[in-house]
Design goal:
The chain has 1 helix and 18 strands. It is mostly beta strands.
């Protein structure tokens, strides 16, 4: 709670001088309330239920010279209960900042500072460039923690764009990370995106210092407890009738431990198309490989998945499914999503049938509820 108060105080100290400099400002209040309940038909039976409230305030000002100032303050408050055979085995509740940023922008340039979402890349289900977010394709709300940092972007006249970022104060694992970052050492990187015939391509880079403290016992660490890590990403997307995309991420660290490999390689190749059947049948498929190795060209240990998602609108309703196939374990993961929209309300019913041991999205919390077979209901109110 002390850190929350400090974040708000610092944010307001930056915001107030800008507000006093305007003749008028706009102020918008919006938010989201959702409640959910799910059953996992394992032995013993598991039940999870809870609610979440994310209020958001945005404000800003735009001048005649196209200079714009805007900002967002939002918080994520949640209450969650877990039961095994209808006996309460635990609960989780709290409130924390969700977004807390300021931005100055023009038509071609923007700079944004604070707690924000940073994501990019072409893949949609299995994303090698999920470096700074944890967006779960199964989550219809697409919620993800943010990162503290400074992001600048410039948009060229030929539709190319350049990104530069510096992150600081982030000490939790995010994306595909298995080891957290040293909180007081800045991370930095950038991205350059170029238009090409029928599409676009991009190259990205990121550097951080990872920290083994708290991950391994001192006896298991050989050498330093912190080590540098560098990532290079390549991605592209083309409209060839169907949409086609590819995404690749290569990570190298100087980690000296029997529990981690210095090289991590992730690759996705995808395709999507909307068929002119009825109201429009959308289908997308991706092939994904994750591997770790001691040398860059070694095959190492790998996980290989294929995925298929299909969505079909039926009036105010929508039916969707995501299917994954694990080529190593030869197992299937199946999710069905039924959605109904009614004014500000949206209702979801999820059905899932997966292996007892969940081997996909290990970096995203809450996967234990999606192992085996089960059902979940969610009601969402947006205002």
């Amino acid at each position: 709670m002390k850190n929350l108060k400090l974040n708000i105080s610092f944010f307001l100290s930056l915001m107030l001088p800008l507000l006093h400099a305007q003749d008028s400002t706009f102020l918008k209040l919006k938010g989201q309330i959702d409640a959910y309940s799910g059953l996992n038909f394992s032995n013993p039976l598991q039940w999870q239920t809870g609610a979440r409230f994310i209020p958001s305030v945005s404000f800003g000002k735009q001048w005649k010279n196209n200079l714009k100032f805007d900002s967002e303050i939002s918080f994520n408050s949640n209450l969650d209960y877990q039961f095994t055979d209808w006996k309460n085995i635990g609960s989780d509740y709290g409130i924390k900042p969700y977004r807390l940023w300021l931005r100055l922008s023009t038509k071609r340039f923007e700079i944004r500072a604070g707690l924000q979402k940073i994501n990019f890349g072409s893949a949609s289900m299995l994303r090698p460039l999920m470096w700074f977010d944890q967006i779960d394709p199964r989550d219809p709300l697409q919620l993800t923690p943010g990162v503290y940092g400074l992001l600048g972007r410039y948009y060229f006249q030929n539709n190319a764009n350049a990104w530069l970022w510096v992150l600081w104060g982030n000490d939790k694992t995010i994306g595909w990370e298995t080891v957290p970052t040293v909180r007081k050492i800045p991370e930095f990187g950038g991205r350059m995106q170029f238009p090409v015939s029928k599409g676009e391509v991009a190259v990205s880079y990121h550097h951080r210092t990872a920290d083994l403290t708290g991950v391994l016992n001192p006896a298991e660490i050989h050498g330093a407890t912190t080590y540098p890590e560098d990532r290079i990403g390549l991605d592209g997307k083309w409209d060839l009738g169907p949409g086609v995309w590819a995404e690749y991420s290569l990570t190298h660290s100087t980690l000296d431990s029997a529990y981690f490999q210095p090289w991590t390689k992730l690759f996705t190749l995808g395709i999507d198309y909307t068929f002119s059947l009825g109201n429009g049948l959308y289908a997308a498929s991706e092939f994904f490989r994750y591997s770790t190795a001691g040398e860059i060209f070694d095959a190492g240990l790998n996980k290989t998945f294929s995925s298929l998602t299909v969505n079909y609108p039926v009036g105010i309703n929508k039916i969707g499914t995501i299917i994954y196939y694990d080529w190593i374990d030869r197992s299937w993961y199946r999710f069905i999503n039924l959605q109904r929209q009614s004014d500000n309300w949206t209702y979801y019913l999820f059905l899932f049938w997966n292996p007892a041991k969940f081997a996909i999205y290990n970096n995203i919390s809450g996967n234990n509820m999606f192992s085996g077979k089960g059902i979940q209901f969610m009601a969402v109110f947006n205002f």
